[in-house]
Amino acid sequence: MEKSTSEYLVQEVECAEPVRLIEMLYQRALRDLECAREMWPDKARRGDAMRFAVHAQMIIGELFGALNVKEGGDIAANLMRLYEFMQYHLVQAVNSPDPEAIRKISDVIGLLQPISDAWSTITRDQLRSQTNSLAEGGSLVA
Fold first, then answer.
1. Of 129, 113, 110, 114, nearest in space to 19 by CA
2. Distance of alpha carbon 81 from its chain centroid, rounded?
3. Cys staple from 49: which of 32, 37, 40, 102, with CB 3.0 to 4.6 Å?
4. Span 4-52, pLDDT tens digits
């Protein structure tokens, strides 16, 4: 019996480390925004473009909700402000004329991409560290 792509994705999400889940959220938000930007000029696909933009907003909302400002200090506070700005920009995009909407979506991509890249580096380093620890005789049991 073959598993569908969605079944593999569900399994990946259920088994993923928290740091990997955040990475997946960033990647999906960026993919949604790229799709929205690409589809936006085609009026026949505008509804789909808006759905992608709204889905990216929802993901950014989840990232916002995952912040721990109390323990995260300035980094979490700055991310909170960035997420709020991104949300506002995407709301404006949906209500803007074509060239302006595309520019606003591109602006959000430009803000989100470096954060995603940095998080991917953190994820890779953390998972590599865990793998090295296991290779040296460590244990997954706390």
1. 129
2. 16
3. 40
4. 666 645 555 566 688 889 999 999 999 999 999 999 999 999 999 999 9
